[in-house]
Amino acid sequence: MKRLISLIAILTLSLSSISFADNTEENPAMLGVQYYNKQDYAQAIKWFTKAAEQGNTKAQQLVALMYKKGQGVKQDYAQTVKWFTKAAEQGDADAQYSLALMYGKGQYVKKSIDKAILWLTKADKNGSEKARKLLDKMGYKEPDFSDKNSDYSNAMDGYYSQNYKQALKWGMKALKTTNNEYGSLAQIQNMLADLYYYGHGVKEDRAKSCKWRIKAEKSPKGFNFDMNVDKGQYQAHLGICYYYGQGVKKSKKTGIKWFKKAAKNGSQYAKDFLKEKGIKY
Prior knowledge:
Largest sheet: none
Number of strands: 0
CATH architecture of the domain at 2-132: Alpha Horseshoe
Radius of gyration: 23 Å
Helix content: 55-70%
CATH class of the domain at 2-132: Mainly Alpha
């Protein structure tokens, strides 16, 4: 509710030069504010939607929040995501931050840490202090193309922007040049594991994927660098590698060890696997 009220205040301030006597269809945002303050939410969302369709990013976020709360309209989370995305794509830092949190938490959308970081970095570049603080807390290093870690920066920038061929090209170079600040070597190795696992920018190869995941785990900081990654997911992948002998000598015992760790860190795949095998964790 605080977020919604704050947006109303910002929108009102931005429209302060418009006369209230001029509240016609040419000024839908102002009409939306007036109706919202009267708690006529059906009319408010009608006019906010008109303003949103005209590209007003604050109105787009208001529409998103009203769909989220079901104010003046049937609750619809798909519409919430739709309107936050529209505002984010126009460069609104607040919308980008909100969208990042949705992807990070898997709220109303399929959880995607990659997309969460992508939108956080965009919000940071557009001046969001909250995004910057969260990136710092996560240990994410802003790409710096001027230093010797530019290979690393190019690789991660390519990965988060889904330019996977760029990510692969620079990732291979970064293996030799990264100084491992913030566990950057492990990040590159995990990225390569993902590329080969999903066939992003390269032919799918589960053995090579396992090879890089194992290297990442053995690198300084391993899976413990302060990135907002799904540690359980990575550990479950190691379980698969060892249990089925993908890219490493087969060892069911070692595989189960990693599945147990993954299950404790929330991996549903690992939990289901162990349950099926009748193994407690």
